[in-house]
Amino acid sequence: YRRGGGRWGWFAPAWTNPKAGLFGELHFVRRRIRFDVIVHELDHLRTAWMWARGETITRKNEERYATLLDELCRKFIRELRKIEPDIKL
């Protein structure tokens, strides 16, 4: 059950207060995971984090949020390779 999510992955937002630290869950279809799907879903996470803080992307903070997405992707791929060593990305 995907709750309106895509065929390859989806972000399920939490129905709690995001300021408490829980923004939602990332779900991926193991056989269809690709870099673009990972980045797309992590961008949903980053957006939920920004909305919880009441922020939007501006010219002044765009680079900081691009770096945040880079770090999220790097850390996610590192952890994914630990739990799924045979995955081919």
> What Rg is obtained from the alpha carbons, in whole angstroms?
14 Å
- Please give the alpha-carbon distance between the first and last residues: 25 Å
- Continuous helix count: 2
Which quaternary structure do these chains form? single chain
Q: Percent of residues in helical segments?
A: 40-55%
Report the portion of residues in β strands: 5-15%
Describe the structure.
The chain is mainly alpha-helical and 89 residues long. The protein has a two-stranded antiparallel sheet with strand order 1-2. Helix 1 (35-53) packs across helix 2. It has helices at 35-53, 62-83; strands spanning 9-13, 24-28.
List the helices and strands and how they pair.
Elements: E1 9-13, E2 24-28, H1 35-53, H2 62-83
Antiparallel strand pairs: 1-2
Helix pairs in contact: 1-2
Write a brief caption for the model.
By secondary structure, the chain is mainly alpha-helical. It contains two helices and two strands; from the N terminus they run ββαα.
Give the tags.
2 strands; 11% strand; mainly alpha; 89 residues; 2 helices; globular; two-stranded antiparallel ribbon
